[in-house]
Every structure is written in C-alpha cells, then in structure tokens.
C-alpha cells in the first residue's frame, strides 16, 4: 500500500474529512486530495505531525511489510542495549496483532519473549549498578547484596529458590505431549541435573535415547555420572561420544563445557579451539566467550582481551555485525579487562 492510500485509510478510520485534516496540518484540502490519489506526497517535515494526528508511528504511515517489521524489531533487539519504552510498546502491539492474525504462527510470541527478556536484562544491568553503588556506600546493607546476586544471576542458598520445580514440570508436560521432540528433553535434562534430581534425569535420558541417535545420549549420561561423583563412568560416556561423533563441531563445544565444569581449563580451551576450527561459517561465538572467561579466571587478562577481540572479528566476518549493542558489550568488556592490566 502506498503512502497516499494509507493516509486515506487512516483518515477514514478516524472519521475526519480531507478539509479537517488539511486545516490541522496547515495545508489545503487539494493537497490532501493529491496525497490520497498518490499524485503527490506530503513534505517530509509533515510526517511527524501526520503520525501524531493518526496515533501511529512514521513507519506505520508507510505500511512496512510484516517481514520488514519483524526484521527491524530483531535488529533493534540486537543493536540497542536499553529499549525505548515507546519503541517496545509499538513492537509489542504489532507482534500481538500479528499473532492474532496468524494463530498457527509461533514466531510473534517467540519474539515477544525475546523482547521482554531483553528488557529484563537491561533492568538487571541497571539493578546491578544501583546495588554496587549501595554496597560501595554501605557494605552492610543486606538487601543490596540480595539484589546484586539476583541481578547478576548468582546463587542463593535457599533450596526452594534454586530447584527449578516449575520449569521441570513444564518440560515434563512438553515431552509427554511431544515425545519425539528432542529439544524438550535437553531443556528438561539440564534442569533436572542442576537440581540434583539424577534418578529422574537418568530415566528421561533413556526416554530421549528412543528418539535420538546423536551424541547427546552419551553426553547427558556422562553429565549425570559426573554430577553423581562417578567420574570413571562419566569418562567412559565422553570417550564413546568422541569416538563415534568426533568429527562434529558441537561435540567439541560440549567437551569444552564439560572440561570447564571440571576445572580442567587448558583442556577446555583446546576443545573450544577445535570446535571453532570445525564449524563452517557463520560460526557461533560461544567458544570465544568461554575462552575469554577462562583466561580471566586464570588471571590471563591479555589472553581474555585477545579472545574478546577475536569474537568481535568473528561477528564482523561471519555475521556482518560491526556496530550496535552486540558489539558494544564486548568493547565494554575489553575496557574492563584492560583496567585489570594496570
């Protein structure tokens, strides 16, 4: 739909005449008529007034396609650290409307969840700074430490806050309804293992094996054994995983995670490097992130900076991303790490 058609539709929806719109904008009724016939276009300086009058964004005046608007929202989530509330409201309204129009399409709700989590991360980042400032001023304020722990995803000693009960029940229902959908088992197994519900995890791992012939069965059986303190049993599963699937990059990424959990950091870095060398572009950046964190844990701040810079280069070469929050967060991390070198 062209701009003139959209102006006409919005005017009729508002129930006003061409003359009334013209008077509000300080133009002639003939000018409005030309716009609506698409024989002329309004001056660009009038677009903000038009959008305000009709209660829509300037984008909506041009009636962008759904695909274009979805792409713009996704780019906003990648590029902007703290979302403008008005932009978020507009995106939310569009996504909910698209979901109503397309009842079998789950993407709008998935993007809504992504947006709300993005905003939550922004709020947590602000909460972190406020809590740190409170502690700097008075380190005895218990609530400041509590809020800092929550903001930074730390651990609280209370069992009932850490047992993943509700999420576990959700994914139990998920795999019951969709037993062939392997991803549901993976999320369920992660929560069960972290909550030390290892007998249940073992049962669900067996159920997953009925539908999955990948490396994942040995991987999760190894994780369960490792959590139970049965390291020789865990190593047998990991060795089987590497023997049968060692040419897959995701296996080496998983082994890097395992060795990092074990505190075997040098082996972990080797595994992550192997994964990065095996994966075809566009490569994920998780390996660089993990290597940077390990280097920092080891006090190797120069190595951590090198890994972060490698991640920035990978974003540019493989994902064509060189600006926005996706990159800015890494630049902030480099600045933080450089301060530790002084």
For the structure shown, list the relevant keywords.
434 Repressor (Amino-terminal Domain), 342 residues
Structure description:
The protein is an all-alpha fold and 342 residues long. Among the domains are: 3-61, lambda repressor-like DNA-binding domains (434 Repressor (Amino-terminal Domain)), CATH 1.10.260.40; 66-156; 163-230, Serine Threonine Protein Phosphatase 5, Tetratricopeptide repeat. Helix content is 74%, strand content 0%. The protein contains 19 helices and no strands. It has helices at 3-14, 18-25, 29-36, 47-54, 58-61, 66-79, 85-101, 107-137, 142-151, 165-177, 182-194, 198-209, 216-227, 231-245, 249-261, 265-278, 286-297, 301-319, 325-341. Helix 12 (198-209) runs antiparallel to helix 13. The radius of gyration is 27 Å and the shape is elongated.
How many H/I helices?
19
Write down the secondary-structure element order: HHHHHHHHHHHHHHHHHHH
Number of distinct beta strands: 0
The low-confidence parts are none
Termini separation? 59 Å
Computed over alpha carbons, the radius of gyration is 27 Å
Overall average residue pLDDT: 93
**Shape, please?**
elongated
User: Based on helices, strands and strand pairing, what is the structural class?
Assistant: mainly alpha
Helix coverage percent: over 70%
Q: How much of the residues is beta strand, in percent?
A: under 5%
Q: Largest beta sheet, briefly? A: none
């Amino acid at each position: 739909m062209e701009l003139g058609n959209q102006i006409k539709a919005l005017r009729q929806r508002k129930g006003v005449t061409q003359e009334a719109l013209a008077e509000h904008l300080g133009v002639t009724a003939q000018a409005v008529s030309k716009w609506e016939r698409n024989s002329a276009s309004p001056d660009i300086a009038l677009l903000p007034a038009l959008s305000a009058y009709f209660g829509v964004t300037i984008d909506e005046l041009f009636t962008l396609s759904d695909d274009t608007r979805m792409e713009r929202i996704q780019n906003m989530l990648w590029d902007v650290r703290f979302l403008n509330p008005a932009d978020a409201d507009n995106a939310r309204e569009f996504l909910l409307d698209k979901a109503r129009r397309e009842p079998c399409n789950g993407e709008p709700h998935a993007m809504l969840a992504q947006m709300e989590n993005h905003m939550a991360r922004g709020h947590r980042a602000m909460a972190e700074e406020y809590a740190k400032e409170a502690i700097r001023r008075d380190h005895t304020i218990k609530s400041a430490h509590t809020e800092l722990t929550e903001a930074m995803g730390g651990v609280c000693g209370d069992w009932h806050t850490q047992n993943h009960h509700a999420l576990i029940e959700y994914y139990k229902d998920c795999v019951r309804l969709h037993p062939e959908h392997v991803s549901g088992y993976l999320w369920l197994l992660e929560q069960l293992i972290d909550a030390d519900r290892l007998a249940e995890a073992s049962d669900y791992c067996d159920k997953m094996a009925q539908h999955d012939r990948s490396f994942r069965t040995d991987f999760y059986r190894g994780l369960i054994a490792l959590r139970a303190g049965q390291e020789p049993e865990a190593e047998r599963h990991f060795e089987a995983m590497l023997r049968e699937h060692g040419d897959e990059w995701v296996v080496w990424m998983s082994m890097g995670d395992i060795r990092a959990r074990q505190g075997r950091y040098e082996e972990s870095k080797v595994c992550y490097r192997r994964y990065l060398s095996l994966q075809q572009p566009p490569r994920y950046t998780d390996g660089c992130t993990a290597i940077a964190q390990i280097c920092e844990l080891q006090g190797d701040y120069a190595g951590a900076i090198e890994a972060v810079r490698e991640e920035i280069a990978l974003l540019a070469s493989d994902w064509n991303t060189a600006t926005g929050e996706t990159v800015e967060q890494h630049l902030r991390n480099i600045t933080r790490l450089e301060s530790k070198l002084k």
